[in-house]
Design goal:
The chain is an alpha+beta fold. It contains six helices and four strands. A hairpin with a 6-residue loop joins strand 2 and strand 3. Helix 2 packs across helix 3. The mean pLDDT is about 95.
């Protein structure tokens, strides 16, 4: 089921006030608590809401260096290498990609020497052909989805209004 205008309002509230109770969300939105809970359950079931946990800063955990490491993999070994990457705690994300390389990993490290150690570990993994590393200097746009939620909400409202006008 697509996200409608109420869903978008719920998602916006979750993003803006993540530590608020369901009862308070329902009050702010002007909907019954049961309605809100049913919507939250559906959004969770449909995979729209993907986590309940907090975002934790690797830098605050002593890993301020952020790098993106492209990994080129021997043909036919992508799944194997992907599973092996999960054993490296400093790899906080990994994606199969098109273009240069087969995997793009997001790696955190204590310092540049630690990053080099991690890269050396990656190079030695069976199935890894080569790596290419880019170090992030400064975050310019933090991870966010609120602008996307707002755009989806506006589109849902326009679609609902257009559908109402054709009746």
């Amino acid at each position: 089921m697509p996200v409608d205008a109420l869903d978008a309002r719920i998602l916006r509230l979750l993003l803006e006030q993540p530590r608020t109770s369901v009862r308070e969300y329902a009050r702010v939105l002007g909907v019954a608590r049961g309605t809100l809970q049913a919507r939250l359950d559906r959004l969770d079931r449909d995979g729209v809401i993907s986590t309940d946990g907090p975002r934790i800063s690797p830098a605050a955990l002593g890993h301020p260096v952020l790098a993106f490491v492209r990994v080129e993999v021997t043909q036919g070994r992508l799944d194997e290498v992907g599973r092996t990457l999960a054993d490296v705690p400093e790899i906080i994300e990994a994606f199969s990609i098109t273009g240069g390389g087969d995997l793009l990993t997001r790696v955190v490290a204590r310092d540049n020497a630690h990053l080099e150690d991690i890269i050396q570990r990656l190079i030695q993994l069976p199935g890894v052909v080569r790596t290419s590393t880019e170090i992030a200097l400064r975050e310019r746009v933090a991870y966010r989805v609120l602008p996307l939620v707002e755009a989806v909400g506006r589109r849902a409202e326009r679609d609902a209004a257009a559908q109402q006008a054709t009746r």
